[in-house]
Amino acid sequence: MVLYNSFNHKDAILYNEGLSRYISAAITGTVFIDSDDFRIKEARSRAMEILACEEINAVAKRGIAFRPVEGNTKDAACDAFVSYEEGEDALYLAVFNFSSSETKVMQLDLERIGLDPAGKYEIYDLWSKETVQAVDGDEISLEEAQPKLLRITPAK
Question: Does this model's pTM top 0.90?
Answer without folding.
Answer: yes
